[in-house]
């Protein structure tokens, strides 16, 4: 009995020491566990972001917003060498206010609009990353011509119809011939081992819209130069207005068709599946993966920059058109004498 009692007491003492040791170890592990450290860091971080007693914004949030604004300005304004021409825009306004020399105002405004138009296209491309290829293409088509549209609106307000006509003609020729030809040429240089593939249905739709635009411009001109209208001046104007309304309706139908009707037609074509020699072009496939771009600014930053750049282009376009109007009035005055 004494032996059994001694063994029982000894085992009880050992279990007590193990319980004490396990409680101490558990306490130490809780003090130094990753979850506890993360919770401490979270509490410390939240204490740093607590608002001050006087109602000011948190310091951490101020630093975050300031860093985001600085990064956005650095990316949009200081990442392109063409932006060195941006100071010419405010300089044109100063010259107009101080000297009022229309020649210099026209030249400086033109130089100032050039980088703004390029940055407007850049902001549109950044926004297109978040909207998908279909809406992104529409944004590029819309805001890509925003500069010409703004200048044309100011010119129409000033009664310079000839300037609007020539601007429209230059835009049509540059997009149909220069831009399209450069796209084909550069595509042939970059993908010289591949055949450039285009969606047939998309090409048919775009060709139909192009034909309608050509007819809308051609018919009033033919009516004017052939003198076959019943009422001189009125029939030409009526046909021109009717053609413009038809083109607007056709563009609206095209938007509905592109956004809701046939989304799959505007999906990018996988040209790798169309190649016969896939084994020979494995390196090209790696290059295609490297060409995948990521947005450099956020969606809200892109929208804000679109508004800012459009406003600046509108201001400089007003000064640009004013100088053209002054030259036109000066020429009319000289011709009258």
From TrEMBL:
Q: What is its main location?
A: membrane
GO MF, one example: calcium:proton antiporter activity
Segments for region (Disordered): 270-295
One biological process term in Gene Ontology: intracellular calcium ion homeostasis
Q: Which UniProt keywords apply?
A: Antiport, Ion transport, Membrane, Transmembrane, Transmembrane helix, Transport
Residue spans of biased composition, Acidic residues class: 272-295
Which regions span the lipid bilayer?
98-117, 137-156, 168-191, 203-226, 238-257
**Listed InterPro entries:** CaH_exchang, NaCa_Exmemb, NCX_ion-bd_dom_sf
Q: Its membrane topology, per UniProt?
A: Multi-pass membrane protein
Every Sodium/calcium exchanger membrane region domain range: 104-259
Q: Where in the cell is it found?
A: Endomembrane system
Q: PANTHER family of this UniProt entry?
A: VACUOLAR CALCIUM ION TRANSPORTER (PTHR31503), VACUOLAR CATION_PROTON EXCHANGER 2 (PTHR31503:SF48)
Name of the protein described by the UniProt record: Sodium/calcium exchanger membrane region domain-containing protein
Provenance organism: Gossypium barbadense (Sea Island cotton)
Q: Recite the lineage of the species.
A: Eukaryota, Viridiplantae, Streptophyta, Embryophyta, Tracheophyta
């Amino acid at each position: 009995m004494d032996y059994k009692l001694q063994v029982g007491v000894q085992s009880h003492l050992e279990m007590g020491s193990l319980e004490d040791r396990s409680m101490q170890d558990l306490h130490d592990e809780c003090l130094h566990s990753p979850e506890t450290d993360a919770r401490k860091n979270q509490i410390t971080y939240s204490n740093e972001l607590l608002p001050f007693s006087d109602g000011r914004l948190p310091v951490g949030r101020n630093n975050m917003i300031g860093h985001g604004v600085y990064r956005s300005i650095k990316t949009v304004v200081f990442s392109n060498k063409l932006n060195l021409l941006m100071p010419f825009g405010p300089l044109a306004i100063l010259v107009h206010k101080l000297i009022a020399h229309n020649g210099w105002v026209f030249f400086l405004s033109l130089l100032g609009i050039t980088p703004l138009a390029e940055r407007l296209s850049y902001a549109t491309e950044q926004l297109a990353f978040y909207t998908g290829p279909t809406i992104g293409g529409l944004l590029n088509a819309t805001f890509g011509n925003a500069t010409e549209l703004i200048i044309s609106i100011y010119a129409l307000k000033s009664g310079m119809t000839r300037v609007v006509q020539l601007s429209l003609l230059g835009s049509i020729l540059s997009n149909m011939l220069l831009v399209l030809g450069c796209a084909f040429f550069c595509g042939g240089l970059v993908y010289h081992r591949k055949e450039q593939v285009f969606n047939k249905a998309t090409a048919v739709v775009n060709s139909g819209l192009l034909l309608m635009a050509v007819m809308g411009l051609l018919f009033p001109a033919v009516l004017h130069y052939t003198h076959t209208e019943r009422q001189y001046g009125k029939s030409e104007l009526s046909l021109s207005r009717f053609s413009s309304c038809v083109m607007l309706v056709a563009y609206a139908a095209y938007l509905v068709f592109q956004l809701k009707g046939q989304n799959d037609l505007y999906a990018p074509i996988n040209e790798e599946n169309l190649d016969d020699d896939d084994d020979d072009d494995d390196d090209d496939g790696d290059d295609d993966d490297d060409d995948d771009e990521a947005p450099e600014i956020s969606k809200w930053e892109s929208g804000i920059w679109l508004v800012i750049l459009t406003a600046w282009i509108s201001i400089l376009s007003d000064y640009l058109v004013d100088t053209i109007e002054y030259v036109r009035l000066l020429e009319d005055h000289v011709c009258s004498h």
